């Protein structure tokens, strides 16, 4: 069999990774697993579905996953509940996928003797970063949201499996991603699609929180660098140094799309909102020779172009289940401007 299993492969980053891998390294025999929750979409894999085997499954379902993982050369786990705001509404799905699901995968990797497991993690596990500091992999975990706490739990479970059982696992911790196929609940696709639709742009609090933006294709090359060259039991931060305040990013998107600033609407802040994320990525750059290749300007222009050309993709999302969620979150603020 000797297949490589990509879990969460129909979500934003997972599907970009599968598409990228099919293009750049087509020799691999891929099995893509996804539960197809609200964020999973087979349309993201449309152009490669004849090159991969797709299995709709829950990573927390040990019996089903045993059959899929048996004989695999490795597992790269992108599957997760991924949106902070949703985790504030209900933590339960986050514990199921991000904690129980990861432990189930680790147990199976051990039981089946799978040679390599990569857990895709996040910078949010470090919590808010003080000004002039960039967190390194050894810094302590201080997550603020149920989402971040569930991802920190996963990282701890991975490390425990490495130490206790010698499970051959590694972890990446990436900063905020953007690019094609990102579900329009996250900042960049929400703002782009709202601008295109002439809807208000909800900026939380004072908008001076900063995030470190990483194009999803740069994330894919980093994941591959760690998958092919990383050391077992090691954590690798993935970032760019592109630290931008939310309001500046929103303003930049308005400028690139030629829209009006009047769309900006300051709304109540997110509870427990982390002020700043910033990573020290020297381990990845010095030990594995990785560097990001896509500048923020180039990446945002390409992303805007993608959302312009794939309007049917996001319009169908925005008019479905997501509509209900959005109305619950923002009420009638989400109306086209006068
Ligand atoms: P996403 O929400 O777009 O995709 C997650 C995918 O996982 C979806 O397709 C969903 O159907 C699937 N999934 C969820 N629970 C599952 C389960 N129990 N079994 C099988 N599949 C399941 O998220 P994303 O933005 O693509 O994030 C992917 C990974 O990268 C996550 O682990 C996330 O924590 C991490 N990450 C994301 C970012 C970011 O900016 N988006 C940054 C750093 C790390
Ligand atoms: P988000 O894309 O949800 O990612 P994360 O919370 O995981 O960093 O949000 C990015 C930043 O944008 C974060 O500081 C919250 C802010 N934000 C808004 O100001 N308005 C919005 O409508 C959303 C979704 C996010």
What does this structure look like?
This protein has 12 helices and 13 strands. It starts with a strand and ends in an 8-residue tail after the last helix. It has helices spanning 12-24, 62-69, 84-89, 92-112, 146-165, 187-197, 216-229, 246-257, 282-288, 296-309, 311-318, 321-330; strands spanning 4-7, 30-34, 53-56, 74-77, 117-122, 169-174, 177-178, 201-204, 210-212, 214-215, 235-238, 243-245, 264-267. The mean pLDDT is 96. With 338 residues, it is of the alpha/beta class. It has 2 domains: 3-177 and 215-238, Rossmann fold, CATH 3.40.50.720; 183-211 and 241-271 and 294-330, UDP-galactose 4-epimerase, domain 1, CATH 3.90.25. Helix 5 links the parallel strand 5 (117-122) and strand 6. Helix 1 crosses helix 7 (216-229), helix 2 packs across helix 4 (92-112) and helix 6 runs parallel beside helix 8 (246-257). A 7-stranded parallel beta sheet has the order 3-2-1-4-5-6-11, with helices on both faces. A two-stranded parallel sheet has the order 7-10. It has a two-stranded parallel ribbon with strand order 8-13. 46% of the residues are buried. Residues 84, 124, 176, 186-187, 190, 202-204, 209, 211, 246, 270 line the site of thymidine-5'-diphosphate (TYD).
**Mean model confidence by pLDDT:** 96
Number of domain modules = 2
Order of helices and strands: EHEEHEHHEHEEHEEEHEEHEHHHH
* Tally of strands: 13
CATH topology of the largest domain: Rossmann fold
Oligomerization: single chain
User: Compounds present?
Assistant: nicotinamide-adenine-dinucleotide, thymidine-5'-diphosphate
Low-confidence stretches: none
Provide a count of the helices.
Answer: 12
> How large is the share of residues in beta strands?
15-25%
- CATH classification, class level of the largest domain: Alpha Beta
CATH architecture descriptor name of the largest domain: 3-Layer(aba) Sandwich
Structural class by SSE content: alpha/beta
- Percentage of residues assigned to helices: 40-55%
Placed side by side, the strands forming the largest sheet appear as 3-2-1-4-5-6-11
Question: Which descriptor suits the 3D outline?
Answer: globular
